[in-house]
Amino acid sequence: MAETARPLMPADDVPADETPREPSASRRAEPLWRDALGQSLRRLRLERGEILVETARRAGVSPQYLSEMERGVKEPSSEMIAAVAGALDVTLGDLTLAIATTLLAVPAGAAPAGPTCQVAYALAA
After folding, report:
1. Of 3, 58, 97, 102, which has the highest C-beta tally within 10 A?
2. Biggest alpha carbon distance in the chain?
């Protein structure tokens, strides 16, 4: 994969003229990995001035699949994430770091605590 010539910005550093998606009322306060990934991928694609079809073709995925990744609908495999990152000329490490930085910026206590999350935390223990 090609090296990126500039560091990636966390989603919080998106220029003011690019308004982020509004989360739906059913969304949790803490963003999910797939949502943060999707926002980063869309931002990178738009910075390159590309349409979905162009990036999807280079990544070897369908435009529909890339769209679902960007909207946080899909839980893509690491191979799919790496393919799209490569098509956007960023390393998987740089993309992961940018997403992790975005997620770390979420205030403590914003983590979901509903019954589903309690079960997931119990299973993880």
Report:
1. 102
2. 44
Report phi then psi at 89, rounded to 5: 60, 40
Q: What would the pLDDT profile of 14-73 be if each residue is shown by its tens digit?
A: 554 554 555 444 445 678 999 999 999 999 999 999 999 999 999 999 999 999 999 999
Q: Are 117 and 111 in contact (CB under 8 A)?
A: yes
Cβ-based neighbours of 20, under 8 Å, separated by 6 or more: 11, 14, 39
CA distance 76 to 103: 18
Helices marked H in the chain: 33-47, 52-59, 63-70, 78-87, 92-104, 115-124
- Whether 76 and 44 have beta carbons less than 8 Å apart is answered as no
HSE-up (13 A, CA, CB side) for residue 102: 24
